[in-house]
Specification:
Keywords: Aminotransferase, Decarboxylase, Lyase, Pyridoxal phosphate, Transferase. The strands form two sheets. This protein has a seven-stranded mixed β-sheet, with helices on both faces. Strands 8-9-11-10 form a four-stranded antiparallel β-sheet. Helix content is 43%, strand content 13%. It has 17 helices and eleven strands. The radius of gyration is 24 Å and the shape is globular. The structure holds pyridoxal-5'-phosphate.
Length: 469
């Protein structure tokens, strides 16, 4: 146990690095990396919110012949920090409101760095019991925060896309194939996952969303009944808890009741909106989320984690029954001992630790700090709505603030002009927002989940959007 040291027969062994870097140089470059990152974080609000490069210019700076001999690491670090990593969306910039921001926290970054430094592996219990325990602990913390039943299990994966794919593969393995119900607001990674698993086009039943972009409950009931009459086999309903487009939550209690009555699987995609559960008002919007049979959330979006971190929570037994690589002997060895082989809970075998960052950041800041930060994001979207509503001759609110997202349009401006203003705003560097298509019309969309965003940032962005042309 702790304190045991392996005996090294070569007493003189002192190499720190497998490829020969001296310990002093390791410290010097390691500290340099910390300084580069912290300097950038301090100064991030002065950077452009997004920067997209030209392919040939980036290649000219970052490419070249294979370096057969060592090159100056300081210069290489500079190229990474000043060329490679500056040309991207700055998801943690206080005026990055596009797509879904990635406002990662330093406590989480440190956990990722440490896990990488130890080359932590979370594949089998025997090969990584410490990292596996971290993952079990973190998954159970997430489960509690979302309010799911205590026997639910989970796995950390690269993100929402992979988490839903894993859930669908398990449902298919345990229950067979059938018709799946979703809406035109379901994230496109979900129908893609169904397609790669072999679901046919007619088995992927996309319902047009209602006026409020929610799944229409009556139309769902009719579709299920119609398919049963036609001899098809309804299998699963996919609800979204916070759509990427508008932050809308499907009527989860109603979907759960239908799934119960019809014996269908209920998958809830809370990749974006799940962390809203930490806030009292968000929890209200997300009621029914705890009724999911499988649920996906993305800590790398609204839980302040660096990429990548997605999480699947699911009814017990589903994952191991579907993915166990050595079912014949592993079952007896590990059953009931609390020793989990994470390679048997998904489609990855060799796995880094994605739990260390969550574990360290939740301990470092405490859940109350996360709660405040999420409340701040929810409030900002409401503030944006209020600011827009104060000028009704200029702005039209298309979808009111929901879970940190608000969609709006400039009166008198067509689709092209909306897109053009989004482009000009990005090019100015001041801020970055999205345009999206809703019911055939291009509109502006703000996602306000960065705890560093101020009211001034918000109003400055909206004012510039109006002034550009
Ligand atoms: C982002 C998102 C996804 C996809 O998640 P990735 O982490 O990008 O793979 C799925 N569903 C929703 C609602 C999302 O917002």
């Amino acid at each position: 146990m702790a304190g045991i040291k392996a005996e090294d027969t070569r007493a003189s062994r002192s190499e720190a690095d497998t490829l020969g870097m001296e310990a002093e140089e390791m410290r010097r470059l390691g500290h340099r990396v910390v300084d580069i990152v912290v300097d950038r974080l301090i100064n991030r609000a002065g950077e452009p919110a997004i920067l997209t490069g030209e392919a040939d210019e980036l290649l000219a700076q970052l490419g070249g012949p294979i370096p057969n001999q060592p090159l100056d690491p300081e210069e290489s670090l500079r190229l990474l920090a000043e060329v490679a990593f500056t040309h991207q969306q700055r998801g943690d910039h206080p005026r990055y409101f596009a797509r879904v921001p990635g406002p990662s926290s330093f406590g989480a970054i440190l956990g990722d760095w440490l896990g990488t430094g130890f080359n932590a592996i979370t594949a089998s219990w025997a090969g990584g019991s410490g990292p596996a325990t971290l993952e079990l602990v973190v998954i159970d913390w997430l489960r509690q925060l979302l309010g799911l039943p205590s026997d639910y299990e989970g796995v950390l994966v690269s993100g929402g896309s992979h988490a839903s794919l894993t859930a669908f593969a398990a449902v298919q393995a345990q229950r067979g194939t059938g018709t799946v119900y979703l809406t035109d607001q379901t994230h496109s990674s979900l129908p893609r996952a169904l397609k790669v698993l072999g679901f046919s086009e007619s088995q992927i039943h996309i319902l047009p969303s209602d006026e409020q972009f929610r799944m229409p409950v009556q139309a769902l009931r009719e579709a299920i009944a119609g398919h049963r009459r036609a001899g098809a086999r309804p299998l699963m309903v996919i609800g979204t808890a916070g759509t990427t487009n508008t932050g809308t939550v499907d009527p989860l209690p109603e979907l759960a009741a239908i799934c119960e009555a019809e014996e269908l699987w209920l998958h809830v995609d809370a990749a974006y909106g799940g962390p809203g559960c930490l806030s009292a008002s968000g929890r209200e919007d997300l009621k029914g989320i705890e009724l999911a049979h499988s649920l996906v959330l993305d800590p790398h979006k609204w839980l302040f984690q660096p990429y990548d971190a997605g999480c699947l929570l699911i009814r017990p037994g589903m994952l191991e029954r579907s993915f166990d690589m050595n079912p014949e002997y592993l079952r007896d060895v590990t059953a009931g001992t609390g020793e989990v082989d994470f390679r048997n809970r998904g489609l990855e075998l060799t796995r880094r630790t994605r739990a260390a960052k969550l574990w360290l950041s939740l301990r470092t800041y405490g859940v109350e700090r996360f709660r405040e930060a999420i409340d701040h994001g929810l409030n900002l979207a409401r503030e944006a709505q209020k600011y827009l509503a104060a000028n009704p001759r200029r702005w039209e609110i298309i979808v009111p603030a929901q879970l940190g997202i608000v969609c709006f349009a400039l009166r008198g401006a067509g689709d092209d002009e909306h897109e053009e203003r989004v482009r000009l705003l990005s090019e100015s560097g001041y801020a970055c927002i999205s345009s999206t298509r809703l019911k055939g019309k291009t509109v502006f969309r703000l996602c306000t989940i960065n705890p560093l965003t101020s009211t001034d940032d918000l109003e400055g962005t909206i004012d510039r959007l109006a002034a550009l042309s």
